[in-house]
Amino acid sequence: MLRIIGKALVLLLSAWALFLSICILLNINIIFPFEIIQENELPFYRMQALRLAIFMTFIFYGVSYLINTSREVYPLHFLKVFLISFSIGLFVMNLISPDTVFKDYVITFFILICGIIFHLISKPQIKKYFS
Length: 131
Fold this sequence. Notes:
By secondary structure, the protein is mainly α. The protein contains five helices and two strands.
């Protein structure tokens, strides 16, 4: 059941990302979950949270590579690491930003839950049960 939920989340988030990619080409700016914004209206703390998530993901994979160079990484693993890093970045930026509203914490929690689900379905023990 968890694997089906995980696949549904991957499908949903991938479709959302495809939609947003098309919107960007049409010069329509949308932030999660579906809020249309003007060109320069992206909240600063969200931009900083994205930057933090990218840096944390890079640090994770850089250190992982330096410690164990023979380990393969699958796409779901990258999604898991990025989503968990992004939720941490959002949480930290939500705490220090004066513009934070309750909706921002709900979005942060949703992204963290997605990362946790991806972590659970990517664990070898769970893969063995469903294969």
